[in-house]
Amino acid sequence: MRFLFLVNDTDAIQPSQTTALLIAAAARRHSVWVAAVGDLSGRSDRQPWAYAKQLPPTPYDDLGAMTAAIATLPAEPLPLDGATLDCLFIRTNPARDLARSATHQTALALTRLAQDRGVQVINQPDGLIRAATKLYLLELPEFTYPPTLVSQNRTEIFDFIKDLRCPAVLKPLQGTRGNDVFFVSSEADKNLNQMIDVIGRQGLVMAQKCIPGAEAGDTRVVVMNGEILEISGKPAAIHRVPGQGDFRSNLHAGGTAKPGVVTHAMRQVVAAISEKLVSDGLFLVGLDFIGNQLMEINVFSTGGLLHAERFTGMAFAEQVIEWAVSSSHSIHR
Questions:
Q1: Helix, strand, or coil (residue 160)
Q2: DSSP H helices in 165-263
Q3: Which among 308, 199, 302 has a CA at the least distance from the CA of 259?
Q4: What is the number of alpha carbons within 13 Å of residue 151 lying toward its C-beta?
Q5: What pairs with residue 206 in β-bridges?
Q6: What is the pLDDT of residues 90-114, one digit of tens each?
Q7: What is the DSSP letter of 92?
């Protein structure tokens, strides 16, 4: 098959989950290209293009060798249609590239044109637009996530926290790596106004009940095509433990990864949202649980694959590529 992986910046690509998918595709002798969001274009004939780097058909030993190879490759024009390309993986992270938010929006519009021209797009652009912020949680069954408020009204936020009668967490709707995520003990917290100000500069505030046991960290569960990604009964799941003196479990905020356990209650949550994820074209996502409650859905560059492979010995990246190949004619375009 012919794969294109769309990333934020090809010149700054790092050893990561996306690189693991690239290696998995290259190892199976698929044709593989990489392009950045700023490398897409459209023309009056509705034909989208990418200035993409094609990987040589050579297996790569490790993630570092792959990223080094990408840095030296020239970019050449590639038409984004079914005659030239089979599958386009959107592996961008707009939240880490807010200065180019308009470029990311345009890239999604152009990948929609590619989808219309017969290219399988994972995840589908309309679904990514719909689930681009944490507000997507509110479209799910209420039992799957903790009591939540999304607002910029200061009085409403204070009242919500007061009514909880327990600690809360405040976060921006579009955030990453645990940036600007705050723990609030009660509505009487002296810094609550400042927290609202910091987050409010970015848009609406998401306030959530702090789940008991949150201090022990969260569990990232990778879901593919509406089902937990697992091989031989071993799920692609990691437990992220907060660093010392911090309640955030994000790995980029000092958290550490350990083997994850998927509970029966977590599986019930996945079953409850499976049909919606698939119907929205969100085929590869990362679900973040605290306890058995869903806190966030990561729909862009889903993390967790590399650590899960290390803990279980299972080739999850290869499984993703194999699924993309097998589903190339069955996914609704």
A1: helix
A2: 192-200
A3: 308
A4: 13
A5: 150, 171
A6: 999 988 888 899 999 999 999 999 9
A7: -
